[in-house]
């Protein structure tokens, strides 16, 4: 007897999150750690679980998440998108709650590459008159 499982991929900046949802009691594991332990003290990480609140599915699914690359903010936003996409596979009717809040939109902003002769992507060296 195979248990049903739903999958969603989320990306943001350099972070990639793979989200697996299984019916359960609401346990969320990120890279083998409890969600609160992984995002210790980062308020923005709470927004990663916004999709559960919007669809009213908090506590109905166990989430097993592997996330790599980027920093805490990018990883939290990647989880948010992956979770939303996985919930769509659970029930396509959730689209009406997720889409207006921008939870199904991939944020396309990436870091611009550094140019030669400049200090950063656009920051020129400081001008010295003498």
TrEMBL record:
GO terms for molecular function: RNA binding; structural constituent of ribosome. The keyword Plastid does not apply. Pfam families: Ribosomal_S9 (PF00380). Residues 99-130 are annotated as: Disordered. Signal peptide: none annotated. GO terms for biological process: translation. Keywords: Ribonucleoprotein, Ribosomal protein. SUPFAM superfamilies: Ribosomal protein S5 domain 2-like. GO terms for cellular component: cytosolic small ribosomal subunit. Residues 104-115 have a biased composition (Basic and acidic residues). The keyword Acyltransferase does not apply. Residues 116-130 have a biased composition (Basic residues). It comes from the Bacteria. Belongs to the universal ribosomal protein uS9 family. This is Small ribosomal subunit protein uS9. The lineage of its organism: Bacteria, Thermotogati, Deinococcota, Deinococci, Deinococcales.
């Amino acid at each position: 007897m195979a248990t049903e499982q739903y999958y969603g991929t989320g990306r943001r900046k350099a972070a990639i999150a793979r989200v697996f949802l299984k019916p359960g009691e609401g346990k969320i594991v990120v890279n083998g750690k409890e969600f609160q332990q992984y995002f210790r003290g980062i308020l923005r990480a709470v927004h990663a679980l916004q999709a559960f609140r919007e669809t009213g599915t908090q506590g109905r699914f166990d989430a097993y998440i592997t996330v790599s690359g980027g920093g805490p903010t990018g990883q939290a936003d990647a989880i948010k998108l992956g979770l939303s996409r996985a919930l769509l596979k659970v029930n396509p009717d959730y689209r009406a709650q997720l889409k207006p809040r921008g939870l199904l939109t991939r944020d396309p902003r990436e870091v611009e590459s550094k140019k030669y002769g400049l200090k950063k992507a656009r920051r020129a060296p400081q001008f010295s008159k003498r």
